[in-house]
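queue> pop job 88
queue> type: inverse folding (structure -> sequence)
queue> payload:
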């Protein structure tokens, strides 16, 4: 291993130790007065030297999280007595890996010592009813909201639960538009990502296959992915098909508009609206190209990619944080196009405030802090996640985090960013439509029967 690689590995392990211990302290795994494991145990756990462990512990001392007791150990400090204002921040567990949230909150505590933020874990795929109950019962003051959850609030007329906020001109306007209803803004954009391709450059080089670019169609990708596949060793292409940020792309790229005709009924047969759905069928049933397997989440794609068992995945900048310490060279590319449509899904995370919160002033301070340039710059430098702040998003990052050579591609493909709303399909219709699509992809319906079923389903609606 080269000196440069050794230094990078050392830094990653040290950062991981600091991050994990900080998270365990702030989450309550180590309560005030508890002692951390010995330096020897920490050295073994994180695979770093005793001297490096001491450097990491010094960081936590500086952050006010622990205190060193001579000849005894490192003890977790109690929050300062003046920290009497409590903000409850509802967020998903993976947000820490995607944004360095525990570090950001420690910086917030340093800046505002009279305020403490308690994180409340929101279960994955939580719906409007769950979040609304948390808001009404005062369990959360601020929470992270994606584009699907926000649209549930709109469709179910629940925006009264969210505090209107002032737009920040330093954030990308198209992100603010995602959370605007009428003249009011109900969430501040925090982070975002387009859905993109991520590919193993070594697999392409081995077979002398050109790397994907913006000119590729889905047929181009399928042809090359078939060449990349190696029986009993790896597949050419994979993604978690039933995730709404994946299957919806094929509707959008078909130019699908779920609008009734003049007579008030829907017509899909021979309309071209299902061309993208048919392309998925071609993908699934090309031998050795795409794995027919049960998939619980997008994380399956990243896991297969990390293990070298798939050459190309459809992913996001959020998910690329799982690839930070990958052993081979990888890069990114725009999604292929279908006919003249080259759109991709825009995935957003915003920060909403409970309109009934009793600590609105402090909650606003937290949101303003998280979308400030200095904080958004930390996200840009330490993660693969794209910050909502325009200037911060331009930062290439630090040398410790090796990025794909085409990482900044996201700036060039902004015109291709699309939302599921462009299909005019209501969220309440998603599950019913997906159920019909799965029957088609499973070989239980023809394309004609699928079109007829969708017409009947939406006419009934």
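queue> result:
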């Amino acid at each position: 291993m080269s000196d440069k690689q050794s230094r990078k590995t050392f830094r990653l392990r040290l950062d991981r130790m600091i991050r994990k211990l900080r998270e365990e302290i702030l989450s309550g795994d180590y309560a005030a007065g508890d002692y951390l494991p010995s330096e020897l145990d920490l050295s073994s756990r994180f695979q770093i030297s005793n001297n490096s462990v001491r450097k990491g512990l010094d960081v936590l001392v500086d952050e006010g999280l622990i205190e060193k007791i001579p000849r005894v150990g490192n003890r977790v400090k109690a929050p300062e007595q003046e920290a009497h204002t409590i903000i409850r921040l509802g967020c998903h567990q993976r947000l820490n890996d995607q944004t360095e949230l525990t570090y950001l909150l420690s910086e917030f505590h340093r800046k505002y010592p009279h305020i403490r933020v308690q994180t409340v874990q929101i279960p994955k795929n939580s719906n409007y009813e769950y979040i609304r109950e948390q808001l009404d019962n005062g369990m959360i003051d601020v929470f992270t909201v994606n584009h699907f959850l926000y649209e549930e609030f709109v469709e179910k007329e629940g925006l009264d639960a969210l505090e209107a906020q002032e737009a920040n001109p330093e954030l990308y306007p198209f992100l603010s538009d995602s959370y605007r209803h009428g003249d009011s803004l109900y969430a501040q954009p925090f982070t975002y990502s387009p859905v993109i391709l991520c590919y193993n450059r070594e697999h392409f080089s081995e077979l002398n296959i050109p790397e994907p670019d913006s000119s590729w169609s889905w047929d181009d990708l399928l042809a090359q992915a078939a060449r990349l596949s190696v029986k009993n060793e790896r597949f050419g292409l994979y993604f978690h098909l039933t995730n709404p940020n994946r299957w919806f792309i094929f509707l959008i790229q078909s130019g699908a508009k779920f609008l009734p005709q003049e007579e008030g009924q829907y017509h899909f047969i021979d309309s071209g609206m299902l061309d993208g759905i048919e392309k998925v069928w071609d993908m699934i049933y090309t031998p050795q190209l795409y794995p027919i397997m049960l998939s619980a989440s997008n994380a399956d794609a990243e896991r297969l990619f990390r293990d070298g068992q798939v050459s190309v995945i459809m992913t996001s900048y959020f998910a690329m944080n799982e690839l930070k310490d990958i052993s081979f060279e990888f890069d990114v590319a725009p999604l292929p196009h279908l006919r003249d449509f080259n759109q991709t899904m825009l995935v957003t995370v915003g920060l909403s405030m409970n309109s009934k919160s009793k600590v609105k002033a402090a909650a606003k301070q937290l949101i303003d802090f998280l979308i400030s340039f200095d904080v958004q710059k930390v996200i840009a430098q330490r993660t693969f996640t794209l910050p909502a702040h325009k200037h911060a998003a331009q930062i290439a990052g630090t040398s410790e985090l090796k990025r794909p050579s085409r990482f900044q591609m996201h700036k060039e493909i902004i015109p291709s960013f699309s939302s599921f709303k462009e299909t005019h399909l209501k969220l309440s219709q998603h599950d019913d439509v997906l159920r019909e699509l799965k029957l088609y992809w499973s070989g239980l319906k023809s394309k004609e029967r699928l079109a007829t079923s969708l017409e009947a389903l939406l006419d009934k609606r």
